[in-house]
Amino acid sequence: MNKAGFSGEPQHSSAASGDDIPAALRDTPDPKPKMRVQPLVLLIGGALTFVLLAVSSGFVFFILSPKRIANSQPSPTLSPTETPISNNSGESQTNNSDSILGHLAYTEAPESDLTVVSGRVRMRTAAAERFREMVRSARQSGVSLVPISGFRSVKEQEQLFFGVGAQRNQTPAERAALSAPPGHSEHHTGYAVDVGDGSVPATNLQANFDNTRAYKWLEANAARFGFEMSFPKDNAQGVSYEPWHWRFVGDRDSLETFYKAKNLKPKPSPTVAPESTP
Ligand SMILES: [Zn+2]
């Protein structure tokens, strides 16, 4: 719309400069006696400039007014559709080039910083220590917290994502709602842990884990040990509700691991900006 308006402009201005040509008529009166001609030239020149000004301002009005209508019409209709998108923090997360299907990229914890929590479950040393403290504290309240899964390598996640996805006939998008793509699991960091209730193992990795005493205890006390739930209901990342999946955010490195990516400001919407600038 705007481009069409602009392309019309040169045509109008060339028409206006066409009006300029009659000023060359002044060359013909020139040879006549100077005393009488000069006021005439001034009169004609003045009249011409008046006409030119009137015509050109008319053109300016003509050119501008339809543009204002053209501009004002699409912008109110566009902005309501744009604003919900830019206000949705989930969308801004997925604008992050390091994310896949809502899952942010994470690097593997160094092998040297991994400690056994229980059985085959390993976590980063700082997180493991706090987790054991938490388990002891819960046990004193008669609650059994069981670590199901801690650190996972990118290779292990590959099997979980593609192998299990194929077994269950799931597309990557369907799979990503339940499991992170390799390279994008919080378990790579060594700070995340899936927790079960030792007295109700049937709820392991199930949404109804949130009915267990273990979950209720975690909800009330985990923050004291530096743990938080990664994917509560309606989380900004759009990952399905995982009441069993907790992450350590109790030291600087873990906090930066999870919150630096989150603090990325949403990119200004590329479609809104050009609309408002011209
Ligand atoms: Zn998990």
Describe the structure.
Helix 1 packs antiparallel against helix 2 (34-72). The radius of gyration is 35 Å and the shape is globular. A hairpin with a 2-residue loop joins strand 1 (114-118) and strand 2 (121-124). The longest helix is centred in the first third of the chain and has 39 residues, at 34-72. The protein contains ten helices and six strands; from the N terminus they run ααααββαβααβαββαα. The protein has helices at 2-20, 34-72, 74-87, 89-95, 125-140, 154-167, 172-176, 213-221, 252-262, 272-276; strands at 114-118, 121-124, 145-149, 192-197, 227-229, 245-248. The strands form two sheets. Strands 3-4-6-5 form a four-stranded antiparallel β-sheet. It has two domains: 2-72; 101-262, Muramoyl-pentapeptide Carboxypeptidase, domain 2, CATH 3.30.1380. With 278 residues, it is α+β, with helices and mostly antiparallel strands. The structure holds zinc ion. Zinc ion binds at residues 149, 187, 192, 194, 245.
